Please model this.
Amino acid sequence: MTKTRLLGKTPSELKEIALQAGLPGFTGKQIAQWIYGKRVRTLEEMTNLPKAGRAKLAEDYEVGIAAPLGVAASSDGTKKYLFPVDGDPSNAVEAVMIPDGDRKTLCVSSQAGCKMGCKFCMTGRQGFHGNLSAADILSQLLAIDEAAELTNVVFMGMGEPLDNWEQVKRVIDVLTADWGYAWSPKRITLSTIGVIPSLKRFLDECRCHLAVSLHDPFPDERLALMPAQKAFPVADVIDLLRQYDFTGQRRVSFEYTMFAGHNDTPRHADALLRLVKGLECRVNLIRFHRIPDFPYGTSSQAAMEVFRDRLARGGVTATIRASRGEDILAACGLLAGLHNHE
Model:
């Protein structure tokens, strides 16, 4: 019988579970402390719960941290972990740990595959295989070797986080709540193509940083790269963003993967400047990593620098993102949930 996972549940939900098992209501808070504060992996480790109570809980429940199926290490220190989805090793997702000085950032997946179908992304190429539960997502943070050292989390792995907002929001709540990990929202960034209904909820319901996948300022050209442009035009996304304040602690950035001769021209830089004019933001320029059966090439470093400098002259801060983990297929756009780990 499949057991229900406790990981990802709130203290109030854990209280109801405790009461149903014949335990006092305050046990729910104790269970939350064991799972999130002490990071135990089994009910048996919750030693301040009565033994009979633990046994009763264990009939139907488990903590639910899933161990990685494998790990691949890059020459630059980046590590890519492969995780089962809901205990099924045939349906796997990847999480990438990126070290940078004192920082250790984990890039987590929120879906197996993706519905958005971006032409230049390996995840989008494989289609959609299901939403991850909060337990699936939190396992990526808790089961890696660097779990206790993580400083930041980015929802930039496999899937569109705002297409699975209920579970992603649950994870953000665990990360930021006093009863969870009590992280500042500033340590969390969510990346999206701009799923407008959920984007509004994200902006209203949490204070985490936002990264919008833009990639081309011209609607027809963006549509050719990103089919979701039809349902969620980037101009509408930016109109929504203009209703919120990004001058304080919460930041918005735009992700811009650069394709040689296609979106790295002065014409594109000027159109991008017009599109984001007056919005407090930055642009992250991303080196394209070639994938099979996609015709565009990688912009040169010189072209990326010219593009960056043109944006800067127009008043928009732009940075060229350092590529990490390309040798283990862990860089932007390369995650595919493949069993190529040790």
Notes: Residues 70-328 form a domain with the TIM Barrel fold (CATH 3.20.20.70). The two ends are 30 Å apart (CA to CA). Residues 185 and 207 are 6 Å apart (CA to CA).
